[in-house]
Structure formats: structure tokens, C-alpha cells
Specification:
The structure is a single chain. With about 260 residues, the protein is of the alpha/beta class. The chain contains nine helices and seven strands; from the N terminus they run ααβαβαβαβααβαββα. It has one domain: Glycerol-3-phosphate (1)-acyltransferase. A seven-stranded mixed β-sheet has the order 1-7-6-2-5-3-4, sandwiched between helices. InterPro entries: Plipid/glycerol_acylTrfase. This is 1-acyl-sn-glycerol-3-phosphate acyltransferase.
């Protein structure tokens, strides 16, 4: 299947494609390893979290990794942290939610030259990392993005059923305020969990706190705190989102203290 143009009006074709798209796992591992060498995150764990992660992965359990969103470089820091942590075995079979503009291959009015090469390269990098596009309400309007959002959540749930894991930034946008205080977490992550459960999958929550140091921050050597809360997520999507926010805030605070 040809790669579709990632545009809101093309949402059906976009999510049909990303329902089945699979990157080359060997290439993904090499790329994640290269990012680890470049960004050099310092990974810390909650008590027993590394051992529990290893056990969950060995048992082929499904994971949802929730990460706070501080910078546009966060996806690369998360990739580097995955390589440098107990999450390394799931590289290549983890879907990563990313804003749709990262998948755009050409700029309006540009038909050749370096701009196209850079955009095409970016799209391929995002696809290689396991990206699934998200059409955000803040970019397209809540009504316009609502149907695409439902398609995206269905794709996420189905990918979990098929054996993939999922990583996402549940705040939905970069934190322009105090990076030590989590922004509002919407109900999207709760709806994904609920839809996965309807398909017979009960994913385990993994929280990952990122901290780059005092402003303006250094993107190399970020403090990363990973934990696997010992809990069963609630039933209602909004309550799931609140629970995720609670545990992710703790991970953020620990990443700050461990910087």
C-alpha cells in the first residue's frame, strides 16, 4: 500500500495505512541506538520497575508508555531512553503518537530542491520510529478533528490487540510553562485503554518523566525516570486519564530530583 498524504481530509486512507504499517525493526534498532549515542539520557527507575518491565516484556504483555511533553526533541529523547533501558526489546514494535505536521513531506508551493528532501527524510524518520499521526483539535478545530481522533484511537487499540505497544504524550502539546508541573491530561489515553479492553487487551501503564535541567535546558544528558505503577487502571476513560496524570506527575518530579 502506497504511503498516503497525511492530511485531515485524507484521514480514512491515513489510518488504513497506519493500521498495518510496520517499520524495519533492524533499521529502527540501529536508529534508536544512534540516538542514544547522541542524546545520552540518564535513565533511573522506580523501586523494582526495571525488573517488572523485563518480566512484562518477557511475558509479552502490552504496554502503554505515557511521557510528559517538554520539547519538540522529546520523541528522540524517548527513543534514546528506550535503547538505554529495559524497553530496548520493544523497539520496532512500539507505535508512537505524533502530531500530523511531522508527517508532511512537502511545503506548500515547493516542488523540488532541498525542502522536499528534508521533508521526505523527516517523514521516513517518523515512520521508522513507528509513528501514528494525530490530528489535534488545537490545530484543526475540535469538531473537524473529532472523527479523525476516533479513527486514531481505534487504530491504537487494534495495534495493541495485534501485539504492539504504544507510547504517547498525553498532555497533547509541549509544556510552555513550568516543565516540572504536568499540564492537563485529556481523556484520549483513557479511551484508548477502554477500546483495547473491548478487544480483550488490558495494557499495563508505564510512566516516563523527562527533565532537561534549568531553562533553557540541555537536550543531551536528560534525566529520565521510568516507573511501572503497581495498579489496575480504572474503568472510565476520564478516571484512567486522571490516574495516568497522577503517576506521571510523580515520575516528572523524580526526574527533576535525579537530574
Amino acid at each position: 500500500m502506497d504511503r498516503p498524504v497525511v492530511a485531515l481530509e485524507n484521514a480514512d486512507a491515513v489510518y488504513d495505512y497506519y493500521l498495518s504499517h510496520q517499520q524495519n525493526r533492524r533499521v529502527a534498532r540501529l536508529a534508536y541506538g544512534a540516538l542514544a549515542g547522541r542524546f545520552r539520557p540518564r535513565v533511573h527507575y522506580g523501586v523494582g520497575a526495571r525488573e517488572r518491565l523485563r518480566s512484562l516484556i518477557y511475558d509479552d504483555s502490552r504496554l502503554i508508555v505515557a511521557v510528559n511533553h517538554v520539547s519538540d526533541t522529546d520523541p528522540y529523547t524517548v527513543a534514546a531512553a528506550a535503547w538505554s533501558s529495559a524497553l530496548r526489546p520493544v523497539i520496532g514494535r512500539t507505535r508512537v503518537l505524533a502530531k500530523d505536521e511531522l508527517f508532511v513531506e512537502t511545503e506548500p508551493g515547493r516542488t523540488r530542491g532541498r525542502a522536499i528532501a528534508e521533508r521526505t527524510s523527516q517523514r521516513r524518520r517518523i515512520d521508522m520510529m513507528g509513528g501514528i499521526p494525530v490530528f489535534r483539535g488545537k490545530d484543526h478545530g475540535l469538531r473537524a478533528a473529532a472523527r479523525a481522533g476516533n479513527l486514531m484511537m481505534d487504530v491504537c487499540a487494534e495495534r495493541l490487540r495485534r501485539g504492539d505497544d504504544l507510547a504517547l504524550f498525553p498532555e497533547g502539546t509541549c509544556n510552555g510553562g513550568d516543565p516540572t508541573v504536568l499540564q492537563h491530561v485529556g481523556s484520549g489515553i483513557g479511551h484508548i485503554v477502554a477500546r483495547a479492553r473491548a478487544k480483550g487487551v488490558d495494557p499495563t501503564l508505564v510512566v516516563m518523566g523527562l527533565h532537561y535541567g534549568p531553562p533553557p535546558g540541555r537536550y543531551r544528558g536528560a534525566s529520565v525516570h521510568i516507573d511501572v505503577p503497581d495498579l489496575t487502571l480504572p474503568e472510565k476513560p476520564i478516571t484512567i486519564a486522571r490516574t495516568v496524570a497522577e503517576y506521571l506527575q510523580v515520575a516528572v518530579e523524580l526526574s527533576v530530583s535525579e537530574y
